[in-house]
Amino acid sequence: YEFTGVWLTLLWLLSTANMKKSMLYKVVGLLFTASFVVMRMVGAIPQLIAMWNAPPWSVDLEHKVQPGGIHPLCWIFSLSLVFPHILNLFWGVKVVSGFMAVMMPKKKKDKASKD
Is the overall model pTM greater than 0.70, yes or no? Predict the structure, then answer.
């Protein structure tokens, strides 16, 4: 189900072996980036839509599930369901920008043109 960790581990192994300039590193980086975006970011859309349509922090929904309510602070714990999606968005931006930096590195200016 969740296989982005395999690609991340392979990237780490290749980096540790000083193979960051190799084509294999770029291919594994592409696989990691694509799988991360598809599984963790695009895959979150149906979950977020479901939470929007039936918000688990809704008091009305809580009372439908358990007449009289579950717990007065239940809504706080239900809000924690959103945090993994926020973290995946944060890391997704980092993953994509890191991949772009490897695939399209910025050219360094030499000192002579700086002066």
Answer: yes
